[in-house]
Amino acid sequence: MNKFIKSASAVLAAASIVGVNLAPAALAWGDNSGKEGGRQTYTLKNCNADYTKCEVSPSMGNKITFNSFTNNPVIGGDERNFVGARENTGINDGKQTWNANEITVEDGKEYIIRLYAHNNNPNGTKTVAKNTTLHFTLPTTAGTSLSVQGSIDSSNADPTRVYDDVVFKSKNGETFYLDYIEGSAHYENNSIGKAANGGAKLSDDIITSKGVLIGYDKLDGNIPGCFQYASYTTIRVKAVYINNSYTVEKTVRKIGDTDKSYKDSVDANIGDTVEYQIYYKNTTGEHVDNVMVKDVLPNNMEYVAGSTKIYNSTNPNGIKNNDDTITTTGVNIGGYDANGEAYIRFRAKVVDKSMVCGTNKLVNWGQVGVGKTTLQDNAFVMVKKTEGCSNPNPNPTPDDKKPSTMPSTGPAAIIGGVIGAGSIVTVAGYYIASRKSLR
């Protein structure tokens, strides 16, 4: 899991999608053309057997455009509907059905999302799309209906961006989120991505706003026109139904500020100290034991030894945890009755180990594990580096260390206790893994 989703009640709008037999009532495709009704569309006729020669209506001339044919015989329909999904059954013989509008998901099952990219100009290498980049926008909320958008960008195409959605829904209205499978981005075409050779691997940047370059004989962003240069790109996600048994919230404040409230983010300078807070609440109707809490610091934050304190009903003024394991193996904060709550606080100092000139986004992860379930949330610190910089980059550079080890229940000493109904913090929704700050 990569990041966090706040607010499990959010439900994204339904949409349509890719592939075959496409005649949706409500369309989810779009572009940045700014034209009423969207980009110019085209039709094909009198194609030869391998579709390397077709008549195009209206004439396209030297215009470069992506996925604008309304009768593509290869995918069986309207190219504007170019993102599809299916369950990952482990079989890939070309006979699988790609869901064109929405797909119903089951807890724990894996799904493949596919994007079709086609430079429509029939003039081949005479009309090459430049800087062609793909990216998927994964939902940053949990819900009963979640939309995944796939986009194609090209600097010399008209329009320069086209996009389409596919909607994931739970079977019986269960709340879920989609967990991206790291390393799953896969590219197939007739050259560098030949299926016979296993296709080509793409970077996980495909799920960020940066995206990934694609290409024909190399991943250089250059895509000639016509069918033989088209491609399929896939990623995999796992549907995870939310365990409603507890909630987690991660916040931060800067030491020395007059505003002492905890927030999702703060501004700080190199050398400043911040205090992180991880909030836990047992929302089951029964007692739970061995709640584990762990934190993952980014590279440019340094834990302050001896600063971890745990607050609960037994220890309303806080009790120090002298093991200093909050950022390593985690801390066992004990057992909690129904509606029991705890706050875990510790400090960290902003240090310059790998900062770039300009604004750095230091993302911090808080994790809570109960049994086999781990929920997480994040907070971040924005640090602007100017010293020794002649031309600082104004765009934030994320220092986003992904959690690789989840907390697990262990034999550490238990700090028992329950906080009653009078909580300092009201938590709305659930806090689960996502990619919020990767975007």
Structure description:
With 439 residues, this protein is mostly beta strands. The chain has strands at residues 4-6, 30-31, 43-45, 55-57, 83-87, 102-105, 110-117, 133-137, 145-153, 161-170, 176-180, 186-188, 200-201, 212-213, 231-241, 246-254, 265-268, 273-282, 292-296, 301-303, 309-311, 319-320, 331-332, 341-350, 358-370, 373-385, 393-400, 431-433. The chain has two domains: 9-241, no CATH class; 246-438, Immunoglobulin-like (Sandwich), CATH 2.60.40.740. Strands 2, 6, 8, 9, 10 and 14 form a six-stranded mixed β-sheet that branches. Strands 5, 7, 11, 12, 13 and 15 form a six-stranded antiparallel β-sheet that branches. The chain starts with a strand and ends in a 6-residue tail after the last strand. It has no helices and 28 strands. 0% of the residues lie in helices and 36% in strands.
Order of helices and strands: EEEEEEEEEEEEEEEEEEEEEEEEEEEE
Counting DSSP E segments of at least 2 residues, the number of strands comes to 28
Parts with pLDDT < 50 across at least 5 consecutive residues:
1-27, 404-439
Q: Tell me about the largest β-sheet.
A: 6 strands, mixed
Structural class computed from helices and strand pairing: mainly beta
% residues in beta strands: 35-45%
Short note summarizing the structure:
With 439 residues, this protein is mainly beta. The protein contains no helices and 28 strands.
List keywords for this structure.
439 residues; mainly beta; Immunoglobulin-like; 2 domains; six-stranded mixed β-sheet; six-stranded antiparallel β-sheet; 28 strands; 36% strand; disordered C terminus
